[in-house]
Amino acid sequence: MSENDQLHTTDEPGRTEGGIPPVRSLRELIDRVTGRSLEAAAPQEDAGFADVVPFPFLALVGQQEMKLALLLAMINPLMGGVLLIGPRGTGKTTAVRSLPELLPQTPRSLCYYGCLPEDIEAGGVDAVCPDCAKKYAGDEPLAVMDQVRLVELPLNALLDDVVGGLDERAALQGHVRLRRGILAQADRNLLYVDEVNLLSDDVVDAILDAAAQGYYLVRRGPMSATYRARFVLVGSMNPEEGRLRPQIMDRFGLRVVVRGLNDRGERLEAYRRARAYLTNPRRVSVEFSDSTALAQEDIQTARDLLSQVEIPDEVSQQGLSLVERLKIDSLRAEITLFEAARAHAVADARLKVTSDDLHAVAPMALRMRRSNFMDDYFTQHGFEEQELADILNDVIPPKKSRKKSGALS
User: Fold this and answer.
1) Which CATH code for domain 309-392?
2) 61 and 19 in contact (C-beta within 8 Å)?
3) Per-residue H/E/C for 74-107
4) Cα Rg for the chain, rounded, in angstroms?
5) Are 96 and 125 in contact (CB under 8 A)?
6) Residue 348: CB partners within 8 Å, gap ≥ 6?
């Protein structure tokens, strides 16, 4: 370095002649050359990790049927989920977003392929990938316990967003790989579909098929993948904004009609709790934390005991009579009715379903399952069948009638 290139210090300690602080280490030199020190000193934008505190489920005022339906769905996913039907501003979304706080933790796979210990318990070591088989042999964990999350489906979601498709980032690097969709991300979580009546038919069909089977298959060209999709499905809709197709309506288990609160005292209490939450959400959450923890324990206990709940034959016959007298064709009516009754019984710490359980869940399980169109269709079809039978018997008498007429001759 020449004499002219040398940096002369000023009177201010730690400063060069140009006002630039001296380099004290190689790390500091690298940070200064790469600009990291400038980035650290620059104001940082919001990273988008806001701590959102949901409104406590137990703080909801009124809406007993809606809360009961959601709790039963948390206990027994075999019911087929819940559909909330009602006008805006009645607390549907608020109730759904509060559910994860009630649910116990669930095992989350550490494997790219989603292998879990329960796979080995059900199908042996061959049911998991080779890496997980080695981990299992070495007594290494295949999963960790994690909090249940609420996965919300965007209203503008496309089919590829829901089921997954080709990974565009991998394609830029010359690789072909499938990426997981929203349904796969919802595995062992809650999937909330708001305004389900406004979604495209192909998206709704994919969601309902995955919910019914617990998995789904994606094919893109020569590639295919099967993803687990075991989630509790909750949908909501405002009838003012459009109707839901009958075949989609039938796929939902419990149907709850959510109306506004009629009691003045309840409406006033709802306002006070909403104002307290908007002012200090964490304080409201703490106030209900003890009761929320107790409810979480009760739900876990109910889940553990659900497999032991039985339905006596006389109770099942009563349920079948309900379906028969309502003239419901879909077999999903019995599935929802009996599974909801089992969940209702175990929630009351009982292992045997009673008539009271059927009475409590029947309105939610059986409403909106009849079709006036199908009734009229089958009526007209019955007239045609009767006319066809009469003409057929007249032109071509049954064999017995022909034998009798031959014997008389």
Assistant:
1) 1.10.8.80
2) no
3) HHCHHHCCEEEECCCCCCHHHHHHCHHHHCCCEE
4) 31
5) no
6) 357
First to last CA, the chain: 135
The full set of domain ranges for the chain reads 57-105+147-305, 309-392
Helix (H, G, I), strand (E, B) or coil at 283: helix
Instruction: Please state the pTM of the whole predicted model.
Output: 0.74
- What CA–CA distance (Å, rounded) separates 64 from 45? 43
Rounded CA-CA distance 213/77 in Å is 12
Continuous H helices in 252-312? 264-279, 281-287, 289-305
CA angle 59, 64, 65 (to 5 degrees): 135
Q: Output the DSSP codes for 109-124.
A: E-STT---HHHHHHH-
Express each pLDDT in 77-131 by its tens digit.
Answer: 888 889 999 988 888 999 999 998 888 777 777 777 677 777 777 777 777 788 8
Give the CA count within 13 Å in the CB-facing half-sphere of 159.
12
Average pLDDT score over the chain: 81
So what's the architecture of 57-105+147-305 in CATH? 3-Layer(aba) Sandwich (3.40)
Task: List beta partners, residue 192.
Answer: 152, 234
User: What is the distance between the alpha carbons of residues 223 and 90, in angstroms, rounded to a whole number?
Assistant: 45
User: What digits encode the pLDDT tens for the residues 162-198?
Assistant: 887 766 655 555 555 677 788 888 888 889 988 888 8
Q: Confirm whether 332 is a catalytic residue.
A: yes
- Six-digit token string for 23: 């380099």
Instruction: List CB contacts of 29: < 8 A, sequence separation 6 or more.
Output: 23
CB 230 within 8 Å of CB 342: no
Q: What are the start-end ranges of the E strands in 229-377?
A: 232-237, 254-257
The CA distances from residue 260 to 59, 67, 95, 236, 346, in Å, are: 16, 14, 14, 15, 30
Marked catalytic residue, from 228, 255, 332, 369: 332
Instruction: Residue count of the chain, please give it.
Output: 409
